[in-house]
Amino acid sequence: MTRDAAPSFTAPSAESIRTVPVPLPGRAYDVRIGAGLLDRAGTEIAPLLARPRVAIVSDAHVAGLHLETLRDALAAAGIASDALTLPPGEATKSWRCLEEVSAFLLESRVERRDVVIALGGGVIGDLVGFAAAILRRGVRFVQIPTSLLAQVDSSVGGKTGINTVHGKNLIGAFHQPSLVLADIAMLDTLTPRDFLAGYGEVVKYGLLGDAAFFDWLEEHGAAAAAGDRAARLRAVERSVQMKAEIVLRDETEQGDRALLNLGHTFCHALEAATGYSDRLLHGEGVAIGCALAFELSARLGLCPQEEPSRVRAHLKAMGMKTDLADIPGDLPAADALLDLMGQDKKVIDGRLRFVLARGIGQAFVTSDVPGDAVLDLLRDRLP
Ligand code: GLY
What we know:
The protein is of the alpha/beta class. It folds into 2 domains: about 15-190, Rossmann fold (3-Layer(aba) Sandwich), CATH 3.40.50; about 190-380, Dehydroquinate synthase-like - alpha domain (Dehydroquinate synthase-like, alpha domain), CATH 1.20.1090. It contains 13 helices and 13 strands. The chain has helices at about 40-45, 60-75, 95-105, 120-135, 150-155, 190-210, 210-225, 230-250, 265-275, 280-300, 305-315, 335-340, 370-380, and strands at about 20, 30-35, 55-60, 80-85, 115-120, 140-145, 160-165, 165-175, 180-185, 345-350, 350, 355, 365. The strands form 4 sheets. A 7-stranded mixed β-sheet has the order 1-2-9-6-5-3-4, sandwiched between helices. Strands 7-8 form a two-stranded antiparallel ribbon. It has a two-stranded antiparallel ribbon with strand order 10-11. Helix 4 links the parallel strand 5 (about 115-120) and strand 6 (about 140-145). Helix 6 (about 190-210) crosses helix 8 and helix 9 packs across helix 12. The protein is globular, with a radius of gyration of 20 Å. The structure holds glycine. Glycine binds near residues 153, 157, 159, 257 and 260.
């Protein structure tokens, strides 16, 4: 735990900052996207505060890169901050760390009207959002997502939670942030592998509901991966717009929000089969899962045969994993993988729910998928 006084700092002015509103009744918020938002964090967050102090939770890796900048920016706006730094990695989304965050927030005297800041990727955002949801029966929080995956998916929409021995994200709450600051300059510090894993979620948005965005990604995805700020801004903005539209229609996933799970039924089985390890990052599993979902859709006669080839071609052109054979090490047999899909949260009355597609940009949710078709697909694609 670190709790140092923050030095003063002058934040630079904003350039090319986009705002995507999430106008949920009674808990509307903005997602602000652009380069340099971290330097402006004090100015951005100040209007939310009842008194000029916040508590920040981050992980050691992100804190080393960005915590000082954040605290300087807050201090420049006259905002004092306490900070807690946790170990990086999925294991941090645990009961133990939830207890540690809760103790820190209580010891920092965070009150009902105060604001907690989650500075990090999806792990920190989910954990801190959940801690904020239950602290004093709910305090507000601000997401400052530092990974591409967190900027385009997990920081928006209010899903928060932790993992248990029973599975991932099984304990949690819907708790919307009060503001999201997605500083695309922070993406410069990602490894190419982490960037591309996040890009798996970006592609997902084109595939599930915006064919024109997928066309755009085919043309500009490589530039985004190479660091082009304008391409990154557009990719994050369009992804967040699509997520916001879906969350507005179905905040608690009674229907349409399940579209966001395109590729995830396959992905969750693959993550379980690879022990949630470095062998397969979540976004890599999403990309492979999207390719498999399109292949399954084509095999079921729902979409033209060319569509899965086009999906795979783009992923391959981006240098991403596209198939089961691209996952290092051995995988379980097809029937064991199908079994792992049965453990997924998206099982209803024992029936697997899949997101399939009638074409690029035309996804839909169905429980009407013959298990044999899934088995045949897995058998054919396993190396
Ligand atoms: N990541 C999927 C969702 O937010 O619903």
